[in-house]
Amino acid sequence: xxxxxxxxNLYAEKCKKLLEESEIRFAGIxxxxxxxxxxxxxxxxxPYEGDETRLQSFLEFVSKASIRKExxxxxxxxxxxxxxxxxxxxxxxxFPITQILLLISAEPTAxxxxxxxxxxxxxxxxxxxxxxx
Length: 133
Fold this sequence. Notes:
The protein is α+β, with helices and mostly antiparallel strands. Helices cover 41% and strands 24% of the residues. It has helices at residues 5-19, 52-67, 72-75, 112-131; strands at residues 24-31, 36-41, 81-84, 89-95, 100-106. The chain is globular and about 40 Å long. It starts with a helix and ends with a helix.
């Protein structure tokens, strides 16, 4: 599984790279139980939620939704899930092999497709490296 120190350092590095994007507020890796294992909010930013319990509940919800597989056979696996809210865009990217996901929160003006391309650009080598036996 991807919870080795090397993988966590790699994830932290990739999340930090995503946080360099002006519209991204939060980039974190969440495990299958909804626990944040790497990454976080952009330095100096306060989460809108302001309530750790609500954020934790949301992480658990996104984790469960992203790892579901009931439609994989007919529709293919989930590439990402996106929600556009008044104050933020939330996008999750499941990494099925390692049973974790990347969660991004961005400004409401963010283009979801552009965010997805940036994530693929930054994380492609990670997923290849971690999926090798």
